[in-house]
Amino acid sequence: MTTVLLVDDHPLFLDGVRAALDSAPGVEVVGEAHDCRQAVEQAVALRPDVVLMDLNLPDGSGIDATREILATAPGTGILVITMSADDDAVVAAMRAGARGYVVKGSGRADLLQAVATVAAGGAVFSPTVAARLGEFFRGLAAQPGREMFPQLSEREREVLDLVARGHDNRRIARELFLSEKTVRNHVSTLLGKLEAPDRSEAIARARRAGLGQEPG
After folding, report:
1. How far apart are CA 61 and CA 76, in angstroms?
2. CATH architecture observed for domain 141-208
3. pLDDT in tens, 48-101
4. Considering all CA atoms of the chain, what is the largest pairwise distance in Å, rounded to the nearest integer?
């Protein structure tokens, strides 16, 4: 039996998805959540095989919820529900650990196939999204600062790079599809790891290591 948690704040859409899943043998909808907080709480409590995750929730981004769920329950399959597969947020969600996406308005067969694939440990990517993810991970391999700051996580290095470009927390949050609170937490953590007394010192060290260069 594949267990599924639905995360979306639109009741009519949820009703339709639930009806489609409930009609399939071997699939059980074990819960619904309408915001990020509920999504994380129910995913941790219910441990579903698959979470169908909307990205635009009342109290934040489904991307942040995806990270929180996978930090506690790394085996959970996150399947993003999106209006457009071309949205940059879809790629950001994949980078956060989601295994694929299903476009809102997809047919029942496509939805069930996506759920089954993710539940089995597979991924659901379009060629376009897969290519963009490949570019992202190739870029990480060549990213400046990896040897200079081995104590930082990939996400913290990414935030540090944007800090070194002179971006404020609001712009960093917008570019990385994070909440400002999450960015503040990352900045605080990386300052501690670098033993930098303030943001200015972190910027200076990052630029000496080759970070903070505008692409182009």
Report:
1. 18
2. Orthogonal Bundle (1.10)
3. 999 999 988 998 889 889 989 998 888 899 999 888 766 677 778 888 889 988
4. 59
Contact 17, 54 (CB under 8 A): no
Q: Where are the domains of the chain?
A: 2-134, 141-208
- CATH number of this structure's domain 2-134: 3.40.50.2300
H or E stretch covering 102: strand 100-103
The secondary structure of the chain in percent helix, strand, coil, rounded to multiples of 5, reads: 55, 15, 30
pTM above 0.70, yes or no: no
Query: What residues contact residue 197 under an 8 Å CB cut-off, 6+ apart?
Result: 191
C-alpha to C-alpha distance for 7 and 51, rounded to whole angstroms: 7
